[in-house]
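User: structure tokens for TetR/AcrR family transcriptional regulator, please.
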Amino acid sequence: MTTGQRGRPRSFDRDTALEKALRAFWEHGYETTSIADLTRAMGIAAPSLYAAFGDKRTLFEEVVEVYVRRYGGFIGRALTEEPTARDAVGRVLREAAVEYTEPGRPPGCLVINAAVNAAPASAEVAGALRAMREENVRAFASRIRTGVAAGELPEDTDALALARFATSVMQGMSQQARDGAGREELEAVAATAMRAWPEGPGGTP
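Assistant: Done. Predicted tokens:
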């Protein structure tokens, strides 16, 4: 006699499973995280994964959206809330030092590191992440241009070059975190980078 439950799909909390997938991709990257790795991490069978999230790429796209909202929001907040471009960029780098080394989470930034070694078959995934990183450059540059217009920075400041400098430091901090650098070490990197910030008119920092 059967119980009538055989063949029913396994029930699970979708948000919890999604967070576990996020951590797997964050730790191991897109290319090397297999469906078997994901089902093991998420605690669900492959048919349930496909039914709830689609294929690996679709799942990853949702993971990135969650990551940006849950863990990457510090960038936009700093660029919006701080009164000067210098304060905004300095805060981003200081907070990156904290975020990239937070205990209990994979080190570094998923958007920066997840598809560094993507195979040609994953070129669209890598391209989407690259576009997100470029969007950060544009956001930094926009904030810097606002600072130039406000007289915080010299009129001849190359906003795009300064934005690429700042985001390059941030990306390097992510890799350093993955290589084992701690919060204090990355905070020192952030402070050193900000010493290269251009002086304002009249020699003001």
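User: Anything notable?

Assistant: The two ends are 80 Å apart (CA to CA).
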